[in-house]
Amino acid sequence: MPLRLDITKRLKTQSIRVKSVAFHPTEPWVLSGLYDGTATIWNYELEELVKSFEISSQPVRSVAFVARKQWIVASGDDMHLTVFNYNTMAKVTTIEAHHDYVRYVEVHPVLPVVLTCSDDMTVKMWDWDKNWLCTRVFEGHGSYVMMAKFNPKDTNTFATAGFDGTVRVWGLSSSTAHFTLEGHIKGVNCIDYYPGGDKPYLISGSDDKTVKVWDYQ
């Protein structure tokens, strides 16, 4: 029997699609990336729009908070990585990040780096302490890179979901994957690590209508 949950809050946008959402770790805020090229911050307790940022004239596919810097990061079909200070509303930077759509941004929990995943089949690492220098390009996927996630148990490693049907696990110090997980027969759209300390699990969801649980040890 399907689980049924009550809707407790509803935040209405003018854009025809919401492409990405993220929670702030301490404030009652939701950040959304919209098809109309904007990113918005909502107070979900008051159900009010807090701030809106003009990111691009093209869809914003991925957004994230960098709370320790008071930033939002956003990326999408304009192939750029854009950063705003959410307190001052000032633009921090806009980087021409990839040669195709940027599918996902992933912020490292401690280090001053952001990962971007693109339809150009690469993942790039950007260091904001080095004036947003691209410090490494990760290559190996045979199609779009849909998502990346840092391992909460070992933040020097991360996993990626590829439309080539593979999940790959990488280290920050090497441009090639440590290993590749093959088992899906269609593109992999999403991944996540099990957050507890007792199981070394990685999950993936695919267009082949399956969710797979991997023991990466």
Automatic annotation (TrEMBL):
Transmembrane stretches, start-end: none
SMART domains found in the cross-reference section: WD40
Ranges occupied by WD repeats: 11-52, 95-127, 138-180, 181-217
Entry-linked Gene3D superfamilies: YVTN repeat-like/Quinoprotein amine dehydrogenase (2.130.10.10)
Biological processes, Gene Ontology terms: endoplasmic reticulum to Golgi vesicle-mediated transport; intra-Golgi vesicle-mediated transport; intracellular protein transport; retrograde vesicle-mediated transport, Golgi to endoplasmic reticulum
CDD domains according to UniProt: WD40
Cellular component, GO, one term: COPI vesicle coat
Superkingdom field: Eukaryota
Keywords per UniProt: Repeat, WD repeat
Matching InterPro entries: Coatomer_complex_subunit, WD40/YVTN_repeat-like_dom_sf, WD40_PAC1, WD40_repeat_dom_sf, WD40_rpt
Protein name: Uncharacterized protein
Organism: Achlya hypogyna
